[in-house]
Amino acid sequence: MTFIEVVLVVAVLSAILLISFPRIPYISDYALKNDARKLASLFSILDESATTKKTYYKVLIVPGTKNTEANHITVESSKSGREFKAIEDSSLSGVELDERTVIDDIVVAGLGLVDEGEVDLFFNPLYGAEPFSLHISQSESVFTINYNPYSGRVKVVEGRI
Fold first, then answer.
1. Domain residue spans in the chain?
2. Which CATH number fits domain 26-158: 3.55.40.10, 3.10.450.50, 3.40.50.920, 3.40.50.300?
3. How far apart are the C-alpha atoms of 139 and 102, rounded to whole Å?
4. In angstroms, what CA-CA distances link 7 with 3, 17, 19?
5. pLDDT (tens digit, 9 = 90+) per residue, 106-133?
6. Interatomic CA distance for residues 65 and 102, integer angstroms
């Protein structure tokens, strides 16, 4: 390679990095938005599946940053609503969140704001679950997942609502 070719290759690589480097912070926003969509899909599927399959679902949500086992969501099922066991169906078994995503808190109609400990949400075949709002974040970005049992809709909203 000649000196001119090396300078040209370095200039092209610099131009590519100049264009792509400012966009790197948006990758974390994309990961957070993707996690919010996955959670919304899970809640929507659980609501529909509880009604159609006549099955009870228990969703365990562990919010907070202080607990080392926090920031995970698991789902168990039961035909009778008494004894719950792990689900074999991979689409209902829970969501694997990005390691940077934090479950800040959850606001449940019967409990209020919960930002530590564990919250069990029960999806009932008759009426779904209680209304709730789940807040997840990454660095400065926050998304709210709202569940409305009366319409069965799950909304993802950017920001804290």
1. 26-158
2. 3.55.40.10
3. 9
4. 6, 15, 18
5. 999 888 999 888 899 999 999 889 999 9
6. 7
Short-list 14, 107, 12, 105, CA closest to 62: 105
pLDDT band, residue 27 (cuts 50/70/90):
low
**Tokens for 100?**
């940077």
- Report d(CA 12, CA 149) in Å as an integer: 54
Give the Cα separation of 23 and 123 in Å (integer). Answer: 39
**Three-state secondary structure call for residue 23:** helix
Rounded to an integer, what distance in angstroms lies between the CA atom of residue 32 and that of residue 103?
11
CA atoms of 46 and 123, how far apart (whole Å): 7
Which pTM was predicted?
0.80
